[in-house]
Automatic annotation (TrEMBL):
Its cofactor is FMN. Transmembrane segments: none annotated. This is Probable nitronate monooxygenase. It catalyses: 3 propionate 3-nitronate + 3 O2 + H2O = 3 3-oxopropanoate + 2 nitrate + nitrite + H2O2 + 3 H(+). One of its GO terms (biological process) is response to toxic substance.
Length: 357
């Protein structure tokens, strides 16, 4: 496997990062399993309370002494409570269907800054983020504590901005990626990985992490050939033994094709790629009724959570990328090791069959 600037900066064996998938997918077992495989595990803490983040960090440290990351979602705007109440009225039929009390549909009392304070107090080695960017004074303080940072970009403009403010590495997220689009400028150019990665690489001096549609060693080699210093995979870890994705979600991944996912704002108000289902289709019928992020997330979260409890995949939020058919039913450790082996094999095959001189 290729040693890169990424392995040195983050003190990891291989430049493979498990994406910080928010929700209830990532846990201590998944993060530590990736770390023990030689990659960088990430706790997706975007929707966790500060207390839950502290708990999960403690659980991870019981299982591994290796470096791991914690991912947060940066959102500075104040909640529009009037718009939130209007959204509750629009979704009332779903709440009634799943016997959800209006008291269960609430906004969080904490902010990303409260979450970040836990990372600082617990001396987490790596802080990754998406949807926004911490302010200059916050980043300066984080650096003073020795915490490394990873930002997410969906365009060259975003990537250059992240480098300018001193971020240690940038994820170049292609259109194929599952889950939320991680960019922070107003418009998302929706560029695929093959076009986006080399353009970002050519404009930056810091390491670039390729993301979007990478599921095996072939994708890793392709990313390296485009100039990336490492890769980030999310969908590839959704189907692992340690993942807390619902069994119905995993089944849908295994039976998926390249046409099974769609980009939607229906679940959160922010563009994200997931497996198409009844709830996604129904909410997408009237785009004007979808509240902005993160209001829509908190409006639909109780529906998706209750659907998960009653095993109704029609109303779950099932994220996944365009390469989801390559998901594997294995431990996260095994997935990392498989990808490392496949990467080495692909490099050897290319060397044998190359006609270049």
């Amino acid at each position: 496997m290729i040693n890169t600037a990424l392995t040195e900066i983050f003190r990891i064996e291989f430049p493979i990062i498990q994406a910080g998938m928010a929700g209830k997918v990532t846990n201590a077992k998944l993060v530590s399993s990736v770390c023990h495989g030689g990659g960088l595990g990430t706790l997706g803490a975007g929707y966790m309370s500060p207390e839950m983040i502290r708990y999960h960090i403690g659980e991870i440290r019981k299982l591994t002494t290796r470096p791991f990351a914690v991912n947060l979602l940066i959102q500075d705007e104040e909640y529009n409570k009037e718009m939130f109440e209007e959204g509750k009225k629009r979704l009332a039929p779903y709440y009634k269907q799943f016997k959800i009390s209006m008291d269960e549909v609430v906004l969080p009392s904490y902010t990303w800054r409260d979450q970040l304070n836990v990372l600082i107090e617990e001396q987490v080695e790596i802080f990754s983020f998406a949807f926004g960017v911490p302010d200059e004074s916050t980043l300066k303080y984080i650096r003073s504590k020795g915490i490394k940072t990873i930002g997410t970009a969906t365009s060259v403009k975003e990537a250059c901005f992240l480098e300018e403010i001193g971020i240690d590495a940038v994820v170049a997220q292609g259109l194929e990626a599952g889950g939320h689009r991680g960019g922070f400028f107003e418009s998302d150019p929706l560029v695929g990985s093959l076009a986006l990665i080399p353009q970002i690489v050519d404009h930056l001096q810091i390491p670039v992490i390729a993301a979007g549609g990478i599921m095996d060693g072939r994708g890793v080699v392709a990313a390296f050939s485009l100039g990336a210093s490492g890769v980030q995979l999310g969908t590839a870890f959704l189907s692992t033994f340690e993942s807390e994705a619902h069994p119905k979600h995993k089944e849908a991944l295994f039976s998926s094709t390249e046409r099974s996912t769609e980009l939607t704002t229906a679940f959160s108000g922010k563009l994200a790629r997931g497996l198409t289902n009844k709830l996604m289709k129904e909410l997408s019928e009237d785009l004007s009724s979808i509240a902005p992020y993160p209001l829509q997330h908190y409006l639909t979260a109780p529906i998706r959570q209750k659907a998960t409890l009653v095993n109704d995949e029609r109303y779950m939020g099932m994220w996944g990328g365009q390469g989801s058919r390559y998901c594997r039913l294995k431990s996260a450790h095994s997935v990392v090791r498989d990808i490392i082996r496949e990467t080495n094999e692909t490099i050897k095959q290319l060397s044998r069959h190359s006609s270049l001189s």
